Structure prediction request, 229 residues.
Amino acid sequence: MIYIGLDDTDNLESRGTGWLARLLAQELAQDYAVAGVTRHQLLVDRRIPYTSHNSSAAIGLGESGTPELAELFERVKLMMLADFIDGSDPGLCVADDATAVAFTDFGRRAQREVLSQGEARGLAETQGALLAGLGGSQDGVIGALAAVGLAACGDDGRYLLVGRSREMTGMQDIPTLLGAGISAVLTLDGQPVSEGLVLADKLRPARRGGKPVLYVEWRAGYWLPVKLN
Prediction:
């Protein structure tokens, strides 16, 4: 698996980082196997400049058509620069899974602490990961590195895109959701759900065990998805 992390790509008037990550994934899917796009919540603190919720995003590429990392980095960099928004401070990170797991602790700390560009850049350099700021203050390197580490751990965040998840609308049965790319449907206490209808508008399954797991709760006749970070 290869992870592409990006952060701080927007301003208050523009579309968010998640939107850009899905756009990039759509472009990359022409040549590579896109495993999904995930959102990762970072610390919300007045000392940290952020647009709305201080979340970053990661794109996962599977083994099929695995690219050379430097080539992939330059390709995504050019796409991000072409969509640069004034007032944003974008960062980009690309790493394979063996390297990305070394950033999981950094990602967890970014959910609790105020971290610095210097630490992010130093850690990326030590591990041989590709990391760069693409404009503004370049503070986006912190969230980009954190997103890669959090996605690589397999137990953080939720999917903005996986399989045909965004094509699902209205009431859908469990087999249809599983066929669309959801790995499992569970209650909040971890019990598997195999029957009933799910309100499938805007599905955002959690990333758990490296897979998209849809958590639901019962609402008087149907299952309602629950968004988890």
Observations:
- The chain has a mean pLDDT of 92.
- Residues 144 and 180 are 28 Å apart (CA to CA).
- The two ends are 21 Å apart (CA to CA).
- Residues 69-82 form the longest helix (14 residues).
